[in-house]
Structure prediction request, 58 residues.
Amino acid sequence: MPECRECKDEVDKLVSVKVGGKARKVCADCADRLREEGEVAEASEGVIQGMMGYKGRR
Prediction:
């Protein structure tokens, strides 16, 4: 049985997710959580850049 690298549980299937530019193999639950965290981080970064008047690209 494969083991999730995030929660250390044994699962039937691992999903590959890019986190910080690196691919990680995690279970489906952890993959959903990591995707949500990434989306929140991007949104908050956009808000901060807007407040600071940043007009360049990331």
In short: The chain has a mean pLDDT of 90. DSSP finds one helix and two strands in the chain. Strands lie at 15-19, 22-26.
